[in-house]
Amino acid sequence: MLKYLRQIASESIVYGLSGVILRFLTIFLVPIYTRIFTPEDYGVLSLVTSTILVASTLATLSLDSAAHRWYWETEELRDRKCTIATWVYCHLGVTLIFAAVIFLSASWLGRVIVGRADAGKYFQLAAFTLPLNVLWIVANNWLRMQRRPWSTTFHALANGLLIVSFTFLFVVVFRWGLEGIFSSQILAFGGTTILSGIILGGWINPKHFHWVRFQEMFHYALPLIPASLALWVISFSDRYFIQIYTSTHEVGLYQVGSVIAAPVAIMSNAFQQAWWPFALSIYKRPDAKQVYANVFLAYIWITALISTALALFAPEAIWVFATEQYLGASSVVGILALGYVMMGLYYIASTGPNIVKATTSVGIVTVIAAGLNVLFNFILVPYLGKEGSALATLLSQSVVPVILFYRSQKLYPVPYRFMAGGAIFVLAFVLIAIGGYLQFDQIIWGIVFKLILMSLFVPVLFLLRILTIAQARQILNINWRSSPVSGN
Q1: CA–CA dist 4, 227 (Å, integer)
Q2: Any idea what DSSP says for residue 488?
C-alpha cells in the first residue's frame, strides 16, 4: 500500500516541481511588479485573463478527459495515435474560431467587462494565445499518459521560463505595461508550440484523425463540457462580481491574494496531473479502492496544513514581497487556499464515475455548484466585498466534491474516511480564524504563536489514524532497533 502512496506522492512532487520553480520566479518579480502596477492594473489583468480562460475551457470540449480514457482503453499503438490526433485537430479548429471571435469583439469586451474601451487591446493580444497553446496542452497530457513526470515537468518548465523571461524583458526593461505581459505569452507559446510539435511527432499526423473516434470521445465528453464551464464559473466568476459591486482596485487585491494562495493551487494541480494516469492505471487491481481511500486522507492533511500556513503568514509575506497598498489582500488568502483544496478533491471524487464511464453526474453536480456560486456571490459580495466573494467560491467549491462523493459511492464504492477528512478541514478553518483574530505588538511573538498553531496538525495526523507510528517509521526508512553495536 505504501508503495502506491509513495508512487503518487513522488509523481505529484515531480509534476509540481515546475510550478514551484515558476512560482519562485513569479515571487521574485512581485516586488518589482507591485511597484510598477497598481492594484487596478492587477484587476484589469485578472479580468482579461479570466475571460480568456473561459474561452479556452469551452474550446477544449473536455476532449482532454476523453483522450485519457481512450488512451488507457487499449495498448495498441495505432489506436492511441488515433485518439491523440483526433483530439489535436478538433481542439485546434474550435480554438481558432474562439480566438477570431474574441479578437473581433475586443473593444466591446473591454467596455463591458473592464469598463474601459482601451482594454480592448489586451483582449486582442490575449486572443492569439488560444491557438498557440493547443499543442502545448496536448503534449503535456500525452507525456502524462506515458507516465513520464520528469519530461512533463521539463516541458511545462520550458513554457513557464519563456513567459517569465519575456515578461521581465517587456515589463521591467522596456516598460510595456500590461501589453508586455500578453506579448510575452504570445512569444512563449509560439516557442513551445514548435517544441511540442517536435515532441509529438508522428502522433499528430493528420492520417491518424478518425471521425468515428471523435464522435465516441465527444459523446463521452459532452456531459463534462457543462462541468468544465461550471468549474470556471466557480473558480473565476468571482472577479466579475467584485468588479460590479466594488471596484477594479478590489479585483486587483483579490488577484494578489490568489497569487499568495497559489502554492496550494500548484499542489492541487500537480496532484491532478499525477492522479488521472495513476488512478486509471491501477483501477483493475484488487487493492485499488483502498489506495484511493488512503490518498484521499493524505491529500487533505497535506493541503490543509499548507493552506493554514499561507493564511497565517499572509500579512508578513505581503510586507516582504509587496507594498503597503496590497495589505488588504491578506484577508482572502486562507479562504481561497481551502477552495483550491476542494478543487483537488473534485478529481478524487470523480474517479468512480470516470472508471464506470458514467460522467453525467459529474456535469450535473458541477453545474449545480456553479449556480450556487452565482447565488452566493449575489448575496455576499454586496455586504462583505471581496471576502464575501472568496467565501462564496469556497462554499460552491465544497459542494462539488461533497455531492460527487455521494453519487460516486453508489456507482463505485470506496472506503473513504469522510469524518476524519472533515475534522482536518474544521481544524484548518479554526486555526486560520484564530490567527486572523489575535494580533501581537511584536512580530516575533506573532510568528511564534502561528508556528504553535501549525504544529497542532502533527498530533492530528496520529489521533485520526491517518498515519501510524509504524507507517511513519517505514516512510522515513528509520530502523528504530538499529544500534552502533549491532552495526546495522
Answers
A1: 29
A2: -
Round to whole Å and give the CA distance between 96 and 200.
20
Half-sphere exposure of 258 (CA within 13 A, CB side): 23
Q: What is the mean pLDDT of the chain?
A: 84
- Phi first, then psi, for residue 152 (nearest 5°) are -60, -40
pLDDT of 2 reads: 52
Pick from 69, 89, 64: nearest CA to 209: 89
- Output the pLDDT for position 246: 94
Name the phi and psi angles at 469, rounded to 5: -60, -40
Q: Do the beta carbons of residue 153 and residue 15 sit within 8 Å?
A: yes
**Cα 254 to Cα 116: distance, rounded to the nearest angstrom:** 20
Single-letter code of the amino acid located at 319? W
Task: Give the global pTM.
Answer: 0.78
Alpha helices, H only, 168-247: 178-200, 211-221, 224-236, 238-245
- CB atoms closer than 10 angstroms to residue 26: 18
pLDDT tens across 82-99, in order?
Answer: 999 999 999 999 999 999
Residues 6 or more apart whose CB falls under 8 angstroms from that of 427 comprise 304, 456, 457, 460
Element (H, E) at 470: helix 469-476
Cell numbers at 465, concatenated: 489514524
- 240-244 — which CB contacts under 8 Å span 24+ positions? 240/47, 240/50, 240/113, 241/377, 241/378, 241/381, 241/389, 241/392, 242/381, 242/385, 242/386, 242/389, 243/43, 243/47, 243/113, 243/114, 243/115, 244/381
Torsion of CA 372, 373, 374, 379, to 10 degrees: 90
